[in-house]
Amino acid sequence: MREYIVSARMNANQDDEMATLSKPKIITLLQRLGELAAERQTEIELLLLGGAVMVLEYEHRLTTRDVDVLIVSPPETAIVRELVKQVAAESDIPEDWLNDAAKAYVRGWSKGQTVFETSGIVVKTPSPVQLLAMKLCAWRDDVDIGDARRLLEELTGAREEIWNALAPYLVPGYELKAQYAFEDLWETSHDKN
Prior knowledge:
8 helices; 7 strands; elongated; two-stranded antiparallel ribbon; alpha/beta; 193 residues; five-stranded mixed beta sheet
């Protein structure tokens, strides 16, 4: 049992150490990615997802473990992956600092804000409604719950209006999970009477 506790603490500490991408660091990494793209006469367009949005756009968190994106362009995503690896090597960070693993939670695309733009790169976000739908579908831990609560603050309207706005962005197969998460979130955020 003692070995398990020590191992769990070590894993928790590793997770804490991985959460090192702050807003200035993310901007520096994206800047370098844009420079490399411009050198190749390529324009990268990314749709920013997950924790990085909460760091850059909403300043809800100080750090995130990685930068989740949907690579919009160029269509040859291998180019972007190659440049991401180069930035990682130059910066002594993991190669998956920028990755598209969260694309499974993207259904459609509601254009939000441009959060970063420089030569060679444009980074946009989905709308807060779509981001909230993604968080409700993921709903894994206190971080997702906190992010969802912050995103809900961005939205106005009655419960049913907001739910109907979210519905088109829910990932098939996760609708029920998202509905339960939304009900819980709404009750803890609005129904305090």
